[in-house]
Amino acid sequence: MGRSLRHRALCLLTSVLAATTVLAQDPTGGRSGAPAGGRGQGGGRGMAIPAGESCPPGMAEIRPRSCMAPQFPAPSIIDYRPHSTLVTPVHMVKSAKYPAIDYHGHPQGLLNSPESVAGLVAQLDTLNVRLMVAADNMSGDRIVRAMAAINTNPKHKDRIRVLAGIDFRNVGPGWGEKAVAQLEADVKAGAVGVGEIAKSLGLSIKKADGTRLKIDDPDLDPVWDACARLGIPVFIHTADPQEFFEAMDLNNERWLEIALFGDRRYPSDRFPKFEELMAERDNLFRKHPKTIFVAAHLGWHANNLARLGKMFDAMPNLYAEVGAVLYDIGRQPRGAHDFFLKYQDRILFGKDAYYPEEYPYYWRVFETADEYFDYYRGYHAFWKLYGVDLPDAVLKKLYFQNALRITKALPQGGWPK
Length: 417
Hints:
The chain is of the alpha/beta class. The chain has helices at 2-25, 114-127, 141-151, 175-189, 200-203, 221-230, 255-260, 274-287, 305-314, 326-329, 333-342, 359-367, 392-406; strands at 47-48, 60-63, 66-68, 100-106, 129-138, 160-164, 194-197, 234-236, 293-295, 318-321, 347-348, 352-353.
């Protein structure tokens, strides 16, 4: 009898081991109704985690509270480039529907000679950019030389305008008078406004006494007051995206960009905090209600349009420009559409870095209702864009009317009604 029991136990154990081997080789876990690849109920696979917790690094949540690692080595954030299988209408827009003013131009040395200006104008013609405002912080002889190159050909003289730069070095006693005198000379030489005031104001520039030059420092007031008196706008870039000031961890959606570019990381032990810079900037706008300010990059609030809307409501002298934040505009098409309609008199078109092949992405976002298409720089955004589909009246204000209204020295004739 004992030998019979041992024989039965051995047979049972052999059967269990065989069944286990079969199940291990069957991706459905032996459930005939479950599709291959684990699309059923999960079959109890994976590592359980408590509710509200995230999966450990290297694992994905395959079912609620269940994590599992891929069966193959995971690609890096740089190498993973999936192709969308979504099929939707595509409307490529090579040139703007209405002639545009690029209020945030950086023509990369193309204003050095009449020949380079001619080449720039030819490129702008293909995009229907009627006028570029060069925001290269020019002053003194640079403006004189640039205007000479622009004005050599009568056909080009109304295609490009320049902004004047302000030298913020050694701010202290006597600085304001010298800065205003230089600004007046630059306007006389052809500057139509001031800018682009660089992000170094507030971030890194020191005063003559060695302290940080704050954006709203009273020593700068003579320049802003002079801009109001001269009737010229101030185009100002403050700080950088808020993510650049935050921890460089795997929750930071701009991780790749700040990993690529070390000068875009602003640790709090070396730089002012983002909100500190925003407070100084907003105080500047409030202190000078007669001066027109244009906040570059939508003030870095394209990811929080409600905040920018409150600024518009509280500061009638404030405008904003859309350069280099298309990645945020295009991922919220309904909210952005409503925002651009509500504040249609306050937003200007601008591109920032001059690469002609990138302008059509702006036209496509603003002019179409296309869905889920690529952005032009993967390190800016790993997500897709959607068309905002703005009406014609708003497009005209965005592309040229608002810029003409606040910048009186721009050529005012020949624009569509």
